[in-house]
# Entry
Amino acid sequence: MRVVIQRVSRASVTNDTSEKRSIQYGLLIFLGIETNDGPDDIAFLTGKLARLRIFDDQQGIMNLSVIDVKGELLIISQFTLLAETRKGNRPSYIKAARPEIAIPLYESFIRSLKSTTGLEVQQGWFGAHMQVELANDGPVTIIIDSKN
# Structure
């Protein structure tokens, strides 16, 4: 599993039917799921996301977690995070899990993040075309791969 995390002052996602979900101060999490991912990857990433100290304390030092600041979370599935670009100019997505594998893992990831953080979690629509808007705060962007 691979995540791209952005600390945001606000973020939203809208689908083709104009349904919108949004958060204020917190984390926007793009999630890519590989074919060989499983419960261990979910446990590792949700634990890391809950404890990751990337929010400023009173001295302006990144020393607080999303739990500490009572932030909000928005998760968006994004298979393109797993693009293989070594050969040619057209990315290959061979590592990305098919929906029958990815959807249960995506849903489990969301449940695990809710229970690990105790925070409200908003989510995009798996496999849908979406428009994402965000205000990256910092900017702070971090990439974590559960296999590394």
